[in-house]
Amino acid sequence: MVAVVRRYHRWLMLFVGLQFLIWSFSGLYMVLIDIHSIHGEDLLSVKQPVLVYADDTGQHGHESLAQNASQETRRSISIDINQVVLLYPDATNITLGWLGVTPVYRFTDSAQVMLDASTGELIDSISESLALELAIGSLKESAEVRQIELITQNPPSEIAFRPLPLWRIDFVGINSPTLYVSSINGEIVTVRQNTWRIFDLLWRLHIMDYYEGEDINNLLLNIFSVSGFLAALSGLVLLWFRLFKNELKGSTL
Amino acid sequence: MMFKRVHKWLSLVVFVQLFIWLGSGFLLGKVDMDKAAGLDTFVRNNPTSFASIYENTDNNSGVVNKPFISVKSLLENYPMTSEIELSRLINQVIYKLKINAGQHDYEASRYKLVDAISGELIDLSTEELAPTDKNLIYQIANFSYKDSAFGSPHTQNPNPSPDQPEKMSGATLLYPPIEDLPRERNAVWQINVADINQTSIYIRAQTGDVIAHVNNETRWRDLLLMLHFMDYAGEGNFNNWFIKIFAVMTLLLSGTGAWGLYRLFSDGRMNVTWFSRHKTLLVHSEELPKAETLSASANSSILDALSASNIDIKAICGGGGVCGTCKFKGEPDLLITAADRERLTPDELALGYRLACQHVMKEVSNIKIS
Question: Could you tell me the residue range of the domain that residue A237 belongs to?
Answer without folding.
Answer: 2-37+199-244
